[in-house]
Specification:
This protein has 154 residues and is an alpha+beta fold. It has three helices and four strands. The termini are far apart.
């Protein structure tokens, strides 16, 4: 069974063991992060393999809405460190029952996430292209208008 330590991240602190961060405020609470932010927990493990497993487990729990159940607060929702820790532990227990199936799910989610990033990149490029076409269209219209102003129309 995987062992991990979950603490509140303090800005400026560095970690020597394999680690990742979990967002603890907002509607994306529970989202795993590779880089720290002011409102996050840090998960430290003893091995890189455990870190990757917990990272993907946390991603699956967040996407599945399992952290959302524990959100508190009326203005800015947040998840407590104990609720986050307990949700991760429950996820690990489920994983332990069927290690092979869990690894298949992690691999599938990783492939889907990679493809999602690729498609988002294509969408971003298409958006830039659309803006370029629109600007070019108006640039041509402007040049046509200035050309007509130079010619006296009857």
């Amino acid at each position: 069974m995987s062992t991990f330590e979950l603490k509140t991240h303090k800005i400026g602190r560095t970690y020597s063991n394999p680690h990742f961060f979990i967002l603890n405020k907002g509607l994306n609470s529970g989202k795993p992060l590779t880089n720290p932010c002011p409102n996050c927990f840090v998960v430290t493990t003893s091995t890189e393999e455990e870190k990757n497993t917990l990272f993907h487990l946390s991603m699956m729990l967040q996407i599945g809405g399992f952290y959302a159940y524990y959100l508190k607060g009326s203005v800015i929702p947040f998840i407590s460190i104990n609720d986050c820790r307990n949700t991760l532990k429950k996820g690990l227990k489920s994983k332990a029952k069927s290690e092979y199936d869990f690894q298949k799910h992690i691999n599938a989610v990783s492939v889907i996430s990679k493809k999602e990033k690729e498609l988002q990149n294509v969408i971003d490029k298409m958006s830039v292209l659309k803006v370029a076409y629109i600007r070019n269209c108006f640039k041509l219209m402007q040049s046509n208008v200035t050309e007509r102003k130079g010619v006296l129309l009857p």
